[in-house]
Structure formats: structure tokens, C-alpha cells
Sequence to fold (320 residues):
Amino acid sequence: MRVGAIDVGSNSVRLLVADVRDAAPWGPGLDTVARAGEPCRLGRGLFETGRVEDELVDRAGVLVGEFLRRARSLGARSIVAAATAALRRASNGAAAAERISEVAGVPVRILSEADESRLVYRSVILGSGESVRGSQSVVFDLGGGSTEIVSGLGERLGRWTSLAFGAVTLSERLVASDPPTDDQLWTARQWLKDELMHGCALFPERTAVLAGVGGTVTVLAALDAGMSTYDPGQLEGLFVPRDRALALVDRIVRSTQAERRSMPVMGEGRADIVGAGALVVEGLIQRFQAPGLVCSTQGLRYGLARLAAEEWRAARPAGD
Fold:
């Protein structure tokens, strides 16, 4: 069946239309029909005010509505729209979700930290090769307002945590100048080291596979591969060895926003936050003593697509 998923994140709104081939939605049989994403920066200013801005809420509603119409035009029978950290943490998050639903014409649910972590982990593992599906892994989703980290063995989930920072919030909080000064970088790295030490205290000391989802991860993988255009098919599963990944992080964080905008596959609305995101990736590689970074393009919206298929089938009469 054909399904749609709309991920309302802290930095952007993303669409996936996909065909689920397996009788059980949580199998490897999922084919991408269409993907899209637009920056929205819903989490802008959230750290200072504790609220999401009304104009950004309306912007998100318009984008969700556009993606809803696109998904329906492509034949999606079931569509799930879900919001993450920005609306989860905002004091007006519930009202914002209602407003987005009203503007867009589709219910927007706010995912719990546990549900977001579970959906991301299962999606990444199912979208990976056989070697990853049988390995001890740590999967992370670096978003605009939060970072989900999940350990597991193959498809079996282990520990999970949702840390209250992402590329947008960390940029606003710690990395102010362009480019950041050595003192700012030192402070950000020490802060991240402490946060990861405490937030991941019960996680394995090291991991054989560190797989990441999010715009920062795809930028790092694309730069390492020398890609000039964004191609999910080529990015999926790319491995960036540890030394090369750390060198790329240093290159990104020490560059200006203008220099970042000139880098291939940077994408609109990412040059000002990718430096902070790269510092998070660096911290995770070091915390888990990982041999490198595996790039995944099958994050939350792929989990939402499988959820859309699961819920649609559960609502159908037996034998239909």
C-alpha cells in the first residue's frame, strides 16, 4: 500500500511518500516514491522564550498542508503527520499542534521521546544492510531541537535517551560568532562532553556501528564522498572513517557561514547551524569510540510511514 509521512521538526518539515510491500509494515520492504523537505525553523528562539512563534507555526501549517496535498495526489491512502522536540518542549506546543492541524487539514500528533527514539532506531536498522542488522549498534537522530540516541543489537532495542539539544538550539546557546572563536569551540566541546557523559552514562562504552540521521550527517557523508548534488541512494549506508569524519568536523566548525553555503549539498537554511551539529557528531564519535560514521537517510519519516501502514491496516475490517 502507498502511505505518506510528514515530519514536523524543529528545523524543517519533511515529506515521505512510500510503498510498503510487506504484509507486516515493519519489514524491509519499503520503496521510496517521493521525498521533500523545506526549512521552517520552528524551534527558533525556543531556548530563550520557551514558546514557538506564531508566524513559524503558521508557516509550518502551510508546509504540512502542501505536503499533504502532494502525498494525496501521489495516491497515499494513509498519512501520518507528527511533530517532535519543538512542540514537545514549548509551553504552547499543544496549541501550536492544533493550529498546524487546522491550517493543514490533517491531525498533527506530538511524539513522545520514547516513540521518536523507537521509530528512528527501527527505521535506520531496517534500512541498513545485513551486516548492520546483525551488529551491536548505536543510532542517533540529530535534529534541530533534540538528539535521540538508541543502542541495540540488530533489530532489538536496548537503551535510549533524548537529549535536550540539537543543531538549532546549540547554535543559539553556545556558538555565537561567525566563525566561532577558539574559546567558543572549547566551551561547546566541553559542554557537549559533559552532556554526553551524563546522558549516555548507562550506554555501552563503545560501539561497532555508529549510524546517524539528519542533515549534518548527510552533509559530512556527501563532503567525504565528493558529491556535488544530494542523492539519497548514494548516501544511504556510506561509511566515513573516524579520522576523516573528525577532520571534516574541524573544517566545518572553523569556516564562516558564507564558506559553508558554498559547500556542495549544504542545503537551504543549514549553513548557520551545521557547525553546531558537526560538534555533536564529533562528540558522539568520541563518546562511543566509534570506528567511523555510517550515514542513514531513513530516519523518523520512514518510521512514520510504516506506522501509517500499520494503523491503516489495524483500522480495516478483517479480510479487507
